[in-house]
Amino acid sequence: MILFPAIDLKNGQCVRLEQGDMARATVFNLNPAAQAQSFAEQGFEYLHVVDLDGAFAGKPVNAAAVEAMLKTIRIPVQLGGGIRDLKTVEAWLDKGITRVIIGTAAVRDPELVKAAAKKFAGRVAVGLDARDGKVAVEGWAETSQVTVLEIAQRFEDAGVAAIIFTDIARDGLLKGLNLDATIALAEAISIPVIASGGLASIEDVKAMLTPRARKLAGAIAGRALYDGRLDPAAALALIRNTRAPGS
Fold first, then answer.
1. Per-residue pLDDT for 140 more than 80?
2. Which of 27, 51, 59, 184 matches a 20 to 30 Å C-alpha distance to 95?
3. 84 alpha carbon, distance to own chain's centre
4. Of residues 51, 129, 167, 204, which has the active-site annotation?
């Protein structure tokens, strides 16, 4: 189980949104590279980054901030937001991104995901963000008519590295992960699933480590880390001890 600290980029700054609403953004750090460095120093093994402006624009917008992060840290980075064609996928992987996350294009253009996953094995994830079970696109500005499971099943044999499942209703509100829906998705498909949206405390981390959640590949933590509700050292120690043989 990997705990991914999240850096969401808006106007070159590190922010957190509430329920994906750009008008409800809190700036937590003016320097995303420094924030990335801080997470690496705290012992996190993998960073989750979203170009929020890119998700709305349909193309990368905060590239300078992402590139500054890549120069600063050594841990792997997964990146989403505005990745809508193979050229953009390739460009980010060439710049040092470990894994790209395709969201809107996974709904609009599933063939892109299949082509990218085939060409870059293990380096393409799909981001599925749900509002009442239906997938939202274009930076969550629109809700489609398809369910998360319907989209996920399209990629069963495509070689997708992971599905990142976000419950928009909980995102940024510290209400706790929607583990029931996330586990149900993980049990219905063979692709590893990462939980996102609402992680609030060490209790959520403990819940991720219970036998019922054993199929989950990880969880993303955002606001809880920034406002001190989740102690990084305690969370990482808990995960490490659970991983340890004989524990």
1. no
2. 27
3. 16
4. 129
Nearest to 194 by CA among 207, 204, 208: 208
Please tell me the predicted confidence (pLDDT) of residue 144: 77
At residue 168 the predicted structure's pLDDT band, cuts being 50, 70 and 90, is: confident
Res. 113: pLDDT tops 60: yes
Annotated catalytic, 8?
Answer: yes
Distance (Å, whole) CA 79 – CA 99: 6
Find the catalytic residue in 8, 51, 167, 171: 8
Provide CB contacts within 8 A for 164, sequence distance 6+.
48, 80, 101, 125, 126, 127, 128, 193, 194, 196, 220
Residue that wins the pLDDT comparison between 175 and 228: 228
Over 80: is that where the pLDDT of 215 sits?
yes
**Strand duo 124-131 + 99-102: pairing:** parallel
Residues in contact with 65: Cβ distance below 8 Å, sequence separation at least 6, in sequence order: 9, 12, 32, 33
| Residue 139, pLDDT above cutoff 90 | no
> How far from the centroid of its chain's Cα atoms is residue 56's Cα?
16
